[in-house]
Amino acid sequence: MQEIIKYNGCFVCGEDNPDGLRIRFFAEGEEAVAECTALPRHQGYPGIYHGGLVATLLDEIMAKSVLAQKRYTMTAEISVRYKKAIPTGSRLRLVGRVTRVHGRLTETEGEIQSPQGEVFATATGKYLEAGSTLGLSV
Prior knowledge:
seven-stranded antiparallel beta sheet, 138 residues, mainly beta, Thiol Ester Dehydrase, Chain A, single chain
């Protein structure tokens, strides 16, 4: 597995962001993958991981699936489907993949799973090419 490049100030993957999640993302075949834990300090309702962070993780894993192909893009649109509440303390596996490239637009899909493969949430996204490296690093 190859680590996918990142921006060190990013809330999700940045190592220099003191308030960030600091998740590492990897290219695994045609997919981007990552693992993290739904921390109790990120709850919405008591004991439930915040839905906004679920959407954030899905956006990031889909964006990383595009970045793994050396395409520098920005989010144009995402649609999230919440299937099951994520209990805080849960270990999570994030998976994203590119489904279609049409000129400057890349379409993706992503999901958040338990380590056993139970799906908590899915998403589709559209990412528009930004045209530069955007200050990213490994």
